[in-house]
Amino acid sequence: MKTNRNIFLSLCVIFLGVVQLGSHSAEAQGITKPFLWEIEGKVPSYLFGTIHLPDPSLYPLPASVSAALNRADHIYTEITLDAVTQLKATQAMFLPPDESLTKKLSPATLKKLNQYLKTLAPNFSVQMFDRLKPWAVSMQLAMLKYQIMNPQTQPLDAYIYQFAGKNNKKSHGLEKVEEQLAVFDTISEAKQIEMLELTVDVMLSNGEKLINDMMQSYKSGNMEALAKIMTDPVFVGDDKKFADEFMDKLLDKRNVKMVKEIVKALKAEPNKVHFFAVGAGHYWGEKSIQDLLKKEGFKIKSK
Length: 303
Fold this sequence. Notes:
Elements (H helix, E strand, L loop, with lengths): L6 H9 L20 E4 L5 E6 L12 H9 L2 E4 L5 H10 L14 H14 L13 H16 L6 H11 L3 E4 L3 H9 L3 H16 L2 H13 L3 H8 L9 H29 L5 E6 L9 H7 L4 E3 L1
Parallel strand pairs: 2-5, 3-4, 3-5
Antiparallel strand pairs: 1-2, 1-6
Helix pairs in contact: 1-5, 1-8, 3-7, 4-8, 5-8, 9-10
């Protein structure tokens, strides 16, 4: 999957590895076709594509996903979602103590950022993010309104992780949070700021529609539509070389590492049911998780 963009950072996080900003109602359509695959073996194991957003319309989970979760002996998310890991993730987003976001952004960018934040709540301002790295702010902007609207709803990853604990199933992370977030720190500060500027522009213009469309593509299990949205020219920056290199780190290389962990788990306990839940974007492209597993000799079919 060779694509880059700036809400690109936010949207990639949503689907990786990532939001519907309109109002929700009890009649909102849920997941009609989940990104769910079965790995054949002595007993079946499962791959599931998630979206990292708290949307109440995603629940209850489709019967096929619930059945797979209930059958599972081991449940894997990208990273473990315990308190220690979440603290590490938060700390990784902060600037050094003597730096601040407001000193790094141009007056024009600060004005537009404040303008967008005021659309979310009158008391919001850029000061809320003054200690965060530019890439972290980019991610937060695409998810912030959604989180405000659904404070009691868990993202799928958190729900699945807690399901494991509540049902006495063994939970695991396919990677460490330090490895996951280190990808973003490889981006130069200048490029992070450029990404943030583009994210603000998109959110002020048609960001809501784009994210709505992505959510609907996720719910309907339409990977082709999802790929088309994420490769929309509105996301593509001028620096294609950077785009390709970054997405290689964000997706391709991480997929290779996660597949190694998946293969290790499947071979170590072939008589156990394993359930792997990672962002839907990891199942897209020539180096998708399911295709890499097929190259390892596993038979996989869509559920």
